[in-house]
Model the fold of this input.
Amino acid sequence: MLSKNKIKNIRALHITKYRKERKLFIVETPKVVSEFLHSSFVVEEIFATHNWLENELSVQEIPINRITEKELHSISALTNANQVLALVQIPDYANIKFNNQELILALDTIQDPGNMGTIIRIADWFGIKKIVCSKESADVYNPKVVQASMGALSRIQIHYTELVPWLSQQDEKTPIYGTLLNGEDIYSQELSQQGIIIIGNESKGINPMVQNMLSHRIRIPSYGNSKMESLNAAIATAIVCAEFKRPKK
Done:
């Protein structure tokens, strides 16, 4: 049986401040927990119902708490709790290394947790292993982001920093692409297989200071008589990544 203090400590991890203090975050549902169990992340503790424990055989060395559905609901960040919740250590990516031979996503103030999680999932799908986020972007260890990423977070290295200084430190030969409404049609551009792709804020786009660092301005053209001003940030990311990764003839 979970004590009131234990429930309080776990629920505190729904809040960014306490996740940072304790360097822990919550992972839920059998599929997503399984992804983290089979990753380089350190799973510190598991809280699971009988149904999950019956089918999971790879957690012998991790402290496990057998709990009821009611107890799981009391600590879950989901509307419908599902069998298992794990406490996972936040990794230290402060010294993450980048090189000119990889394609990197840089997120400029992506604030919606759903968008952030979906973008992480998209990066994983297209084989992008590193993401740089501005400090104003959503916390990737927010339970909503973790869930939206569907386990992809377990395979992506994510680093928070001030984008302008970070971009200024990159090799001057590194192409820096930015998605802008006044950019060049992405389908008419010769895109590099290496470099940095910047995705801007959901409503304001890319910060003007960051725009000054761009070497290539691209846009996704609209077709027909669409009255839409822009695409959802995650959808735009998927289209852009697909074009960068499309085999060139």
Summary: The mean pLDDT is 92. The two ends are 61 Å apart (CA to CA). The first strand starts at residue 24 and ends at 28. The domain at 103-245 is CATH 3.40.1280.10 (Alpha/beta knot).
